[in-house]
Write a structure and sequence with these properties.
Helices cover 8% and strands 33% of the residues. By secondary structure, it is mainly beta.
């Protein structure tokens, strides 16, 4: 990264540069398989760039090959004291794909009635993606779409991002957004992101400085959930249910003589 800049908006949304952060302390990016990527920029709170920090504005990372990445500043901004007692600010930013959380998908009938809870049946993924992006910000457009088989898709007050993730699930594909120069962002729906790239050779101790693995059982559990009788989908309880005792087994491991 050659420079970190603050912009009023995305380049494709006529954004303007507001400030440069020359005294940045660190820039860290975390990429996750579920698309919940995150960028954290740390710099002195007394920096002149702090006056340009606002939620919803854009952090642009410039690289030495003249390319750049854009990140949306989120609501989470932390301030703390460093070991040298310097007040440090940390900006947490989200990928541009999160802009698709704005608004809801809708279907407008010929008579003007608008529905937010509806279903499309027997449409191609390309057609479904186009309908979803019709309710997204104007700087999003359809990119590469691999699947072609028709699908059904249900909308229930869904944001464009929720609908796109639902489309990716029913087509068993992966969703991604890529910047198209300064024109717009293209939304891709492909079988596997980066499937056309070359295979990298990763060796511990050579190009991997640290390799670790952690496991947890915090969210693992075996649950027994009783349900009442009835047809599939009916919500019935077992309240006031009577049980017949068939046998009584004495647990000899319990001392019944104890007071």
């Amino acid at each position: 990264v050659t420079s970190v800049e603050l912009w009023s908006d995305l380049a494709c949304a006529t954004g303007a540069r507001l400030a440069v952060i020359p005294d940045r302390i660190s820039v860290s990016e975390r990429t996750q398989l579920d698309g919940q990527d995150e960028l954290v920029v740390t710099f002195p709170r007394q920096s002149a760039a702090w006056a340009s920090v606002r939620e919803g504005r854009v952090v642009r990372l410039q690289y030495d090959d003249t390319s750049f990445d854009e990140w949306r500043i989120g609501p989470q901004t932390e301030q703390q004291r460093s070991a040298q007692n310097e007040l440090v600010a940390s900006l947490t930013c989200a990928p541009v794909l999160q802009d698709l959380l704005r608004g809801h998908c809708k279907r407008v009938e010929a008579d003007g009635l608008t529905y937010y809870d509806f279903e499309y049946l027997g449409l191609t993924p390309a057609a479904l993606l186009a309908l979803i992006l019709a309710d997204a910000p104007a700087y999003f457009a359809a990119g590469t779409i691999t699947p072609t088989a028709v699908r059904d898709l249900r909308f229930a007050w869904s944001t464009p991002l929720e609908a796109l993730r639902g489309l990716a699930e029913v087509t068993r594909c992966e969703l991604a957004a890529r910047r198209n120069a300064s024109t717009n962002y293209l939304v891709d729906l492909v079988t596997a992101i980066g499937s056309g790239a070359g295979t990298g050779l990763i060796l511990t101790g050579k190009n991997v400085l640290l390799l670790g693995r952690s496991t947890t059982t915090d969210e693992q559990a075996t649950r027994l959930v009783p349900r009442g009788g009835g047809e599939e989908g009916e919500a019935r309880t077992i309240a006031r249910t009577e049980w017949r005792v068939d046998a009584v087994v004495l647990d000899t491991s319990i001392d019944l003589t104890s007071p």
